[in-house]
Amino acid sequence: MDHVRYVAELGLAARTASRAMARASTQVKNAALLASADAIEADRPALLSANRLDVQRARERALEPALVDRLMLDDARIDAMIEGVRQVAALPDPVGTVTDLAYRPSGIRVGRMRVPLGVVGIIYESRPNVTADAAALCIKSGNAVILRGGSEAIESNRVIARCLAQGLARAGLPGTAAQLVMHTDREIVSALVSAPEAVDVIVPRGGKGLIERVSRDARVPVIKHLDGVCHVYIDATADADHALAIAFNAKTQRYGTCNTMETLLVDEAVASELLPRIASALSEAGVELRGCPRTRALAPQVVAATEEDWYAEYLAPILAVRVVDGMDAAMDHIARYGSQHTDAIVTQHHGRAMRFLREVDSSSVMVNASTRFADGFEYGLGAEIGISTDKFHARGPVGLEGLTSQKWVVLGEGHVRG
Q1: Which residues are paired to 407 by β-bridges?
Q2: Element of type H or E holding 52
Q3: What residues form DSSP beta bridges with 347?
Q4: Taking Cα atoms as reference points, which of 229, 48, 14 lies closest to residue 122?
């Protein structure tokens, strides 16, 4: 097939639909989302049947059990999908909000208005719920969306996309505001990310390989993060109980997430007191510890860390541990080895906390809190389309506001410039 032509056709339909979405009222967009949720509920038997086919094919292809689990839908996961769409409908609508409106000496009033980005391309793997989640966020923020899911979930995604189109149509909006790429060819991805006339921004959600490929080939802006090499630094003034609880939670609450701690840094002044306790708790939880020589001297169960361990995003029950000579050494380590995702300090010293917040250059920086809080829902965004470690447009968890831009607006009463 002609992949470039196919993407161009999708893009033209999305561009046309995006104009209708941009002018749609909050009430109409919410009606579309609620109708989409109802359609998924009504089509539950068809969705379960389609998902069984996807899962069967995945097992025949000998996909990893973790991938098969992410692919699988049951009634509880469908309930969560439906509830997620309804929750997005309940979120405040950022579109049309005017801020910073002020009079200028000339008499005109100048402000900034929130507007949709236009057409968003979402490229993702495995989880069929992303089809509903991502589309809901794009619809609520007044955008059209082109969804390219993984080939392993194509049957499930087709049912969900059909429900979304039904919901949009019931609200009087074009069904082409949420289009699924119906072909599973990998070349479609290259064509999509190379088509600025079709999409305004690409959001890749998946493994590092997918995100690297999209970032390398894209000719349109990409909202993404490559790695989540997250650090917790235990300062010399840290409360011991807080340090133990935060380090344990940041690593063990979930292993496979991008905001899980991958390196623990401990100030030399408190290492002999705290490291054995923390290492013991993590070891008992089944975490393999890889540390520097000073760490190993204090906790014999720790194996030697290599240089590669400081760069590693394990996404597994493995943790790198280093004893450092104070906060400057900790921040130097984070600057060298970190991925600008999420880093935390445990301290009772206000000045050091403020320095850490100012000087650590990551999308989320925390004081006395687990890195696992770096999440759109926990930040009050309601939902997120992903996390960005870039510095332009959106940074950190990207919610509805991150799917909009701003334009200047000027209000006058016949004003002319002298």
Answers
A1: 113
A2: helix 44-60
A3: none
A4: 14
